[in-house]
Amino acid sequence: MRLRHRLLLALDVSNVERARSVAQAVRGQVDGIKVNWPLILSAGLGIVREFADLGYVLCDFKVADIPNTNRLIVEEAVRARASGVICHAFAGEDSVRACVEAAGSADVFVVTELSHPGGQEYTAKFAEDFARLAVRAGAAGIIAPATRPDRIRALRGIVGARLILAPGVGAQGGKVSDAIAAGADAVIVGRTIYEAKDPAAAARGIVDELRSSAPK
Ligand code: 3DU
């Protein structure tokens, strides 16, 4: 993954036309587009193939099944030209390894702890274990919460040079500068961009903030 801006768009827009127009509007400001179930369920997997023409597409499928099913899911994503896939760690190391193997040259990112308050109830308790698992399994990196920068800092100590992508800035309350200062390589932003009247201007604003944020 080439991080020029350190920003990925979370395109959780169910209306396909709107999704296309936001993607086109911000393509010069982001390093990739993250697609999740709301868009896939309304548009179909073909939208991944379509956005792959614009650049890096990260399939946030939060894959969390037995190894064989994980493999089949990741194979479909890669066949649709996804550049990366997100999986959960709680299904166990064999399940994560199945994703990494099926991904081939595509990236796998492992969720450590979820960014919302409920993420602290269970996922946070195992986040360090999940980060170690991600490293052992050969994942490209982890997904860590911009809402809790101290946790990004702790997880950076475990994953070393692997990538940390941080969702949770803006609508969820996290700050770009805090996430970057804590060691995130890039932030993932959805609503702050796609709900803005002018998504391109919103993305530009975040890129400016990223430029003036001190890296780790
Ligand atoms: O809160 P936003 O609208 O900026 O969107 C954040 C995106 O990142 C959204 O797609 C969500 O499913 C994803 N995500 C998290 O928010 C938190 C996580 O821990 C993992 C993924």
Describe the 3D structure:
The protein has 216 residues and is of the alpha/beta class. Helices cover 45% and strands 17% of the residues. The chain is built from 10 helices and 8 strands. It has helices at residues 16-26, 37-43, 46-52, 67-79, 93-103, 123-137, 149-159, 176-181, 191-194, 199-211, and strands at 7-10, 32-35, 57-63, 84-88, 107-111, 141-143, 163-167, 186-189. The chain has an 8-stranded parallel barrel, surrounded by 7 helices. Strand 7, helix 8 (176-181) and strand 8 form a beta-alpha-beta unit. Helix 4 runs parallel beside helix 5 (93-103) and helix 6 packs parallel to helix 7 (149-159). The longest helix has 15 residues, at 123-137. The radius of gyration is 16 Å and the shape is globular. It starts with 6 loop residues before the first strand and ends in a 5-residue tail after the last helix.
Topology:
Layout: E1 7-10, H1 16-26, E2 32-35, H2 37-43, H3 46-52, E3 57-63, H4 67-79, E4 84-88, H5 93-103, E5 107-111, H6 123-137, E6 141-143, H7 149-159, E7 163-167, H8 176-181, E8 186-189, H9 191-194, H10 199-211
Parallel strand pairs: 1-2, 1-8, 2-3, 3-4, 4-5, 5-6, 6-7, 7-8
Helix pairs in contact: 4-5, 6-7
The chain binds ligand 3DU.
**Portion of residues in helices?**
40-55%
- Helix count, DSSP H or I runs of 4 or more residues: 10
The poorly predicted ranges are none
Mean pLDDT: 96
Q: In percent, how much strand structure appears in the residues?
A: 15-25%
Bound molecules: ligand 3DU
**Order of strands, widest sheet:** 1-2-3-4-5-6-7-8
Distance between the termini: 18 Å
Order of helices and strands: EHEHHEHEHEHEHEHEHH
Oligomeric organization of the protein chains: single chain
Global morphology: globular
Specify Rg, calculated over alpha carbons. 16 Å
